[in-house]
Amino acid sequence: MSGADGPPRARQRVVLADRHGARVVRTRVEVQEQTEVGEVMVRALVRAQLGLALRIAVLAAALLGLIPLLVLAFPALSGVAVFGIRLPWLVLGVAVYPMLYGVARLYCRLAERTEQEFVDLADD
Q1: Which keywords annotate this record (predicted)?
Q2: Phi and psi of 74, rounded to 5°?
Q3: What's this model's pTM, rounded to 2 decimal places?
């Protein structure tokens, strides 16, 4: 803007609040130097990973525990034979492994996501 009486005025930066005494958190340095902030961040990561592992373990145990419960609930299933092998043994001996593989893949994907979120936080 120029005034009618003189040359244009230079732009001026307006600061509404100064941050005196505010500590700049350098998270990557905090983690590397193992300061209190870094230790809290690492503990939070470990706690998140432990929680994830426990939830996935409960899921796997529930899925495995469901097989005998289904056989108890539906006794006719124990009499069914596929290729000469009774269905409960076939499920326990063959079908469980792809299910466990899927649970393991799910855990790896979620654990990597948690670690990536930690790295993203540390890079800020």
Answers
A1: Membrane, Transmembrane, Transmembrane helix
A2: -125, 85
A3: 0.65
**CA gap 42, 36 in Å, rounded:** 10
Distant-in-sequence, close-in-space partners of 81: CB < 8 Å, separation ≥ 6 = 87
Rounded CA separation 19/25 (Å): 14
Residue type present at position 59: L
Q: Please write the tens of the pLDDT for every residue from 39-62.
A: 888 888 899 999 999 999 999 999
Q: For the chain, what are the domain ranges?
A: 27-123
Say which residues have a Cβ less than 8 Å from residue 33's Cβ, sequence separation at least 6. none
By the 10 Å C-beta count (0-12 exposed, 13-18 middle, 19+ buried), 31 is classed as buried
Q: pLDDT tens-digit profile of 63-80?
A: 999 988 988 898 888 888
Angstrom distance (rounded) from CA 38 to CA 27: 7
